[in-house]
Structures are given as C-alpha cells and as structure tokens.
Amino acid sequence: EVQLQQSGAELVKPGASVKLSCKTSGYTFSNYYMSWLKQMPGQNIEWIGNIYGGNGGTGYNQKFKGKATLTVDKSSSTAYMDLSSLTSEDSAVYFCARPGLGTGWFAYWGQGTLVTVSS
Amino acid sequence: DIQMTQSPSLLSASVGDRVTINCKASQNINKYLNWYQQKLGEAPKLLIYNTNNLQTGIPSRFSGSGSGTDYTLTISSLQPEDFGTYFCFQHNSWPLTFGSGTKLEIK
Fold it and tell me: Are A75 and A69 a contacting pair, CB within 8 Å?
C-alpha cells in the first residue's frame, strides 16, 4: 500500500525557515515524481513544484522559486521541502502528493502539514 | 498561467439529485483535466483523471466529460457521503493549476 506520511505541524517566526518531510512507503521511491502543494485556509490549492525521486531533478511553479526548495533522500525514501524567509502569507497546509500508475497527477496524498507563521 | 473557473462556488442539493459542477479553462487544456473531492481536514481525493476516467475505487455515480476549455463533473444520484469541496485541476501546461472549488452541501 502506497503511503505518504508527512511531518507534524510547525509554528515558526517570521523570517525563519522550516523544513517539511514526506516519508514514503509501499512503492519504489526512485520511480516516481513527488509534488508539493499549498492550501491556505479556505482557499484554492496551489502547485509548488515536483521532484523526481530517481535523480532529484526538479521543476517549480515560478511563483514559488526562491521560496521553496525540494530535495529527496533516496536512502530513506523521503522527500523534503524547505520554505525560507517565512511570512504570514506562508501560513498554510502543505501537502505532498504522488502520481498514480497511469492516472497522472496527485493520486496519492500525504495528510498535510500545517505551517503557522507567527511571532 | 491557465486560469480555471469553477461554477457554481456553492451548491446545495438533496440525496438522489443529479448534480453537475462546471469548470472552464482560460485556454484549451486538451482534456488534461482531473477532479478531486476534499473533505474538511483531509487531503483531496482523486475522482476522475483526464476528463472522463474514473479512478479505481470511486463509485460509478461520478462521471466526467468535456473538451477544449469546458468540463463537467456529474454525480448521477447524490449520496450523503458526497458532501465536500470539489476542485478541477489542469495538467496540460505548467504551472499546474486548480479551480477555486465548489462546495457541495447536502440539503
């Protein structure tokens, strides 16, 4: 069974950085992309970017370049997202999501990580 | 960026009703359109991929149609568990974008 387990909620101060994790199981990590998405409270979902588990190759939504940095650790089948220079606009739930086999984007999702930026 | 406009934004319907949710793209997305259902506090769930393909495990009362810029999600006979917010999503071109959502309430 494919599982994506995300790290716990974060309370961070403005200007700080935070690193979120998405630990996977149930499939060969290096064979799939992992995507990260942002959802502010009561708001639309935004795609942040993708990273390939095999070689770490990335693609970003231009809006999040400089804000988010995606990395992977193949040895632990874990994807990471660093968010830098946090402001209140970064307060949101962040999801990791993986394509399905033949179904394309976002067939499997993590449970989400709530990031709250507050002094 | 491709803008995805959903309508209606709020929908109230009764069990057994036929429900349709519309999604209009700002340009042709070549049927690269998915539908997701999200319940409060949960991650979205994939219902339909590439316009009209039912994801495994999703009830057959859900169906999708459309082409070009106009797409529709239909629930043939609404069930109590179908409440939630529905999002369309285009993966024809980057950046990948979602509609703003349709909140479906059960009367």
Answer: no
pLDDT digits (tens, 9 = 90+) for A69-101: 999 999 999 999 999 999 999 999 999 999 988
Distance CA B34, CA B53 (A): 9
How many Å apart are CA B38 and CA A5, to the nearest integer? 18
Q: Which residues of chain A lie closer than 8 angstroms to B49, CB-CB? A: 100, 103-105, 107
Strand-pairing partners, residue B87, are B36
A112/B87 Cβ within 8 A: no
For A110, the closest chain B residue by CA position comes to: B43
- Alpha-carbon Rg for chain A, nearest whole angstrom, is 14
pLDDT single digits (tens) A60-72? 999 999 999 999 9
pLDDT of residue A104 exceeding 80: no
Are the beta carbons of A77 and A25 closer than 8 angstroms? yes
DSSP A23-39: EEESS-GGGSEEEEEEE
Assigned token pair, A116? 């709250």
Task: Kindly state whether A103 is in contact with chain B, defined as any CB-CB distance less than 8 angstroms.
Answer: yes
